[in-house]
Amino acid sequence: MTYKLSQIIKDIGLNFEDNDINIDGIHTLSEATSTQLSFFNSEKYMDQLPKTAAAAVFIEEKYAELLPATTVALITDEPYLKLALASKFFAHKLESKGGHPAMGEGCDIDKRVRFGKDVTLGDNVIILAGCYVGDNVTIGSDT
Description:
Blueprint: E1 3-4, H1 5-12, E2 22-23, E3 25-26, E4 36-39, E5 56-59, E6 72-75, H2 79-86, E7 102-103, E8 108-109, E9 114-115, E10 120-121, E11 126-127, E12 132-133, E13 138-139
Parallel strand pairs: 3-4, 4-5, 5-6, 7-10, 8-11, 9-12, 10-13
Antiparallel strand pairs: 1-2
């Protein structure tokens, strides 16, 4: 999915008054493309700032001048948090309607485990509370 940067920024509570651009994902400073977001919150990665190809970067104001002219500086005191909030736009949606798995013999599955559709469990599978097993997953025997 592709979203307008202005839509993402408005949703996470920042101001945006630059040219609107399409954003299709999130990546690291060194790997981001001209259609992706990134963030900077550690001086350990300062050398990557002038070289990033990211469309926009969540960054504290004091570091913004180190970004290339082609990268939009999204000024915030909480770059990591703002990236985390923006990540919901790109997260894969989980199927909410699951089913009962095809189970082998000797399985020990906690009653609080949730299953997606078309799940197959081999023999002697153990799954503890709080796990979600997604659609079309096969778990081998003795795991």
